[in-house]
Amino acid sequence: MLTGKQRSYLKGLAHNEKALMQLGKEGLSEGFISQLDALLESHELIKVSVLDNSLEDAKAAAIDVCEALKAEYVQSIGNKFTIYRQSKTDPMIEIPGADNSRVRANKSRKASQVPKQEKLSKRGGKISKPNQNKNKKKTPRP
Fold first, then answer.
1. Can you say how many angstroms the Cα of residue 41 is from the centroid of all Cα atoms in its chain?
2. Strand 72-77's sheet: what is its strand order?
């Protein structure tokens, strides 16, 4: 259960995000719930838009989705609602006042696995090094 401060923090994170899913005229179907479950596992915080042709109300749909997915209701404004569920495999969002030990362990594990990246040009290609062998000693020709 989220406290008011935690819910407020998540609202701030979700403010600039776009809706990742749309709830249409079919309503809360099994396919919609399974896709939302996969998105929650990868993103943790999801905003869903309820289309005008849907028979569902945004807040009622959010509460039904939260019950089905064991997620937390964050907010609903107009025809959009936001839900949160911590990822089981890859938790990334640190919530103030909560036990964030899994999140910190995951971040430290990822930091230790970061490979060294090559420098890329402005257009995204590899930077060539034409003078790389210039400083090597040349062998005299006989």
1. 9
2. 21-23, 45-50, 80-84, 72-77
Rounded CA-CA distance 21/83 in Å is: 12
CATH topology of domain 4-84: Translation Initiation Factor IF3 (3.30.110)
Answer for the pair 87, 94: CB distance below 8 angstroms, yes or no: no
- State which amino acid sits at residue 53: N
Mean residue pLDDT of the chain comes to 86
pTM, to two decimals: 0.75
Tokens of 16: 């600039």
Angle (deg, nearest 10), helices 58-69 and 30-43: 70
- Give the start-to-end residue ranges of the domains of the chain: 4-84
